[in-house]
Specification:
This protein is α/β, with parallel strands linked by helices. Helix content is 24%, strand content 38%. It has one domain (38-177): Rossmann fold (3-Layer(aba) Sandwich), CATH 3.40.50.2020. It has 4 helices and 12 strands; from the N terminus they run βββαβαβββαβαββββ. Strands 4, 5, 8, 9, 10 and 11 form a 6-stranded parallel beta sheet that branches.
Length: 184
């Protein structure tokens, strides 16, 4: 038997989606945007974000593992700029990685972001665009800012497909839309 799940309807970059609502703590639900495998939505979002980023001095795009990788790849292709993925687990081949701790709303656990040693030079002294799929609490965003600072990069801008919740600082984020949070 299939369970009925409430959804939140949204149009993003001309593409309609019904985002499933998930309870993340008692009495609080959020709409989940999962772009993994959604080529139509990712391509449309990359083109729309590229238009909004026009004129911003970007040398490299930086994102965190893992749901935002498709938008980073697509935006990289549209803008003709390289991208870096900050990993959430250290691997020996990453050498002398730079790290910063963050807390994800979807996992509710502390996570550490790692900048692979090979990517340090790609960021050092460069203008970076920090990119995420959805910015909710800002913790991952803060972790990416810390990595950029430690790597000697300048944050030229911050972008996401969507922002979420009622945070005044989200007005500074270049995004394609906004999601409310749902209180039961």
């Amino acid at each position: 038997m299939e369970k009925h799940r409430d959804t939140y309807p949204i149009d993003i970059a001309g593409v309609h989606r019904e985002l499933p609502l998930f309870e993340i703590k008692p009495g609080l639900r959020i709409a989940i945007l999962n772009i993994l495998g959604d080529v139509e939505l990712v391509d449309a979002c990359a083109k729309a974000l590229a238009e909004k980023l026009e004129g911003l001095p970007i040398d490299v795009i930086v994102t965190a593992e893992s749901k935002s990788i498709p938008i980073a790849h697509a935006l990289s292709s549209v803008l003709g700029k390289p991208y870096i993925v900050l990993r959430k687990e250290y691997k020996p081949y990453m050498g002398e990685a730079i790290k910063a701790e963050t807390l994800s709303i979807t996992t509710g656990k502390p996570q550490i972001l790692f900048l692979d040693e090979k990517d340090h030079e790609l960021m050092h002294g460069k203008n970076v665009l920090i990119l995420d799929d959805v910015i909710s609490t800002g913790s991952t965003l803060q972790g990416m800012r810390l990595i950029a600072e430690k790597a000697g990069a300048r944050v030229a801008g911050e972008a996401s497909i969507l922002t979420e919740g009622d945070r005044a600082e989200w007005m500074q984020i270049i995004s394609l839309g906004h999601l409310p949070v749902f209180f039961d």
